[in-house]
Amino acid sequence: MVSFRHVWCVSKGIGAVATTGIVGYALFINVSEGKIVHASWTTNFEPSVKWDDNWDRRDPESLVKPLKNGSSDKEAKDRANELEKQKPTATRHLLLIRHGQYNLEGKEDSERFLTKLGRKQAEYCGQRLKEADLPYTKLISSTMTRAVETAEIIHKCLPHLTWEREPNLCEGAPIPPEPPVGHWRPEKSQFFQDGPRIETAFRKLFHRAEVEQTKDSYEVVVCHANVIRYFICRALQFPPEAWLRISLDHASITWVTIRPSGRVSIRRVGDSGFIPAKEVTVV
User: How far is CA 122 from each of CA 96, 99, 153, rounded to the nearest angstrom?
Assistant: First the structure.
């Protein structure tokens, strides 16, 4: 059985012995086997996938012509000034809302309207957004009935927002999931049809702020579970085929932040804590 007796701190300036459980620059001594097991950051660790700084094709370095060999000091200075002009200063926040529970018996989109519970869930979500009192800048929704109805209820809580409808945000099959699941097997043609459309929506919504944007923005986007799950994987540069491993409750909030540097972070995923437990649904 493997046991660890002591943690020896080896960082520069630290020469103490700490008890097991202390986090620091350390190496662990495997008592039973007499081996030294190094903490991950003390090895020649290389990330399996490196972050692509130019994922949105808006990295200033890619927007300004590179210097030629033998460029003058003036040319170098001019390029540096141009780079500064291309650097965003504002942060973009996207609050992705899944629609409320809807009528699963409907065959056509018009018949897949919100249930009574779904409307209550949308109201809870609208009130939560209102109480957060963030400086929201825009409301965007899919054009499908359940998303439009959810957005309409949220809009009543945030009536000052302009409301745009984006057909590319409609539900669909973004990419074949890995691992595949037995209970959901759409035709392969559906992935070829839906995938490019949903990717188009991602590229339209997900990018660092424009240079002209001076204040942080907060956009409320009402759409669908498959779309949001795919967006999460794409935004974090995770394998996009992992999207089906994520579950989102109805009327839940997923908060994505895009920094001026292009770094992306997720502040919430499928947050539904504002909905009473007995009224939370996922299917």
Answer: 13, 7, 6
Cα separation, 101 vs 99, in Å, equals 7
Distance CA(189)–CA(195), nearest Å, equals 10
- Please tell me the distance from the alpha carbon of residue 70 to that of residue 81, in angstroms, as a whole number: 19
Q: Position of tokens 């202390």? A: 22
pTM of the model: 0.83
Q: How far is CA 67 from the centre of its chain?
A: 35
> pLDDT by residue (tens digit) across 193-236?
999 999 999 999 999 999 999 999 999 999 999 999 999 999 99
**What DSSP state is assigned to residue 179?**
S
Nearest to 67, CA basis, from 79, 51, 56, 59: 79
Pairing verdict, β 253-258 and 264-271? antiparallel
From CA 54, how far away is CA 146, in angstroms rounded?
Answer: 35
CA angle, residues 201, 203, 205, in degrees to nearest 5: 65
pLDDT, tens digit, 9 for 90 and up, residues 18-68? 444 444 444 444 555 566 665 655 666 677 789 999 999 999 999 999 988
What distance in Å separates the CA atoms of residue 102 and residue 115, rounded to the nearest whole number? 5
Distances (CA, A) of 48 to 38, 45, 123, 236, 237: 19, 9, 42, 14, 12
Distances in whole angstroms, Cα of residue 265 to Cα of each of 109, 136, 207, 216, 260: 33, 19, 13, 15, 12
The answer to whether 166 and 201 have CB atoms below 8 angstroms apart is yes
